[in-house]
User: What shape does this take?
Amino acid sequence: MTQSFPAGFEDALKYAVSNAVGGHLRHWKPLSKGAEHWVVTAETTKGDRLVVKLATQLAAVPSFTDAKAKHDLIRRLTAIPMSEMLAADDSMSNVPLRYSVQTELRGEEWFSRRWRLNEAERRQALGHLGEIVGRLHAPTREKFGPFTNPEATAALGALESHASRIIQRDDLRDQFIELLHRHGHLWDNVINPGITHDDLHGFNILFDPDQPTVVSAILDFDKAWSGPTESDFARMELWDGMTDPSFVASYRGLEPELPGYMDRRPYYQLLWCLEFGQTTAEHLKTTNQLAERVGFPRIDQF
Assistant: This one.
């Protein structure tokens, strides 16, 4: 198991777990692996069940310390099911990897659960998800921008800054920001920043093992920011199987649609396409359909 991990990985994992909960590592299992970063589940001799993220200094992974501060704030402000982040360290002063440790929450990812539900159960599950997302978006923040460094700016300026951080290709980033400038009036009435998850796809939403239509956890707030929360809703509308009329009814019962949302929606959705940037036939088709709607240049490859 350890052969696909760098030297010192297990020692770093043991240290992170011990620092977080004071126990000793009993066993661990890899969940995912990226370029220079890893996610594993771990269990201690005391029975603690944890999720541990580890990354090298070179990994394109945001600060774990900032992520913990953000995660802690969201837990205080919202009434949604989410894990507790127990420890985070970017210093690499004691081990050769950055790390974060959080409690593991039981559940099945929505993209798996939805196929095992009948139509009535899917409606009920999406209705509950709409309520949870509405509760996430309900608290109003004072300023737009990153949680750790909010900006005294309007929604449009914050969205431009956010796009500049998440679109990797320079030409696409510049073209998208120029597009926002041209149509900036669309954001004139978006005045209240909120907790914007920015990654509410079906792998970041867990459903209870014993109650098939009940959301048990929202995961991975690493990308969250104080933004126009309607952008989360727009992305979920774009992704297959994430919304339906029951979701919309539950969500809109807590977060009414702002005037002009339908005009802003394709910009939020195009931003995700440019951020994700995959040269597949399906992704390019979706990207260029949205690009045509808002007057963005056609893209042949990312």
Notes: The beta strands are 25-34, 37-44, 49-55, 85-89, 98-103, 108-109, 194-196, 205-207, 215-218, 225-227. The domain at 2-103 is CATH 3.30.200.20 (Phosphorylase Kinase; domain 1). The chain is about 40% helix and 15% strand. The mean pLDDT is 95.
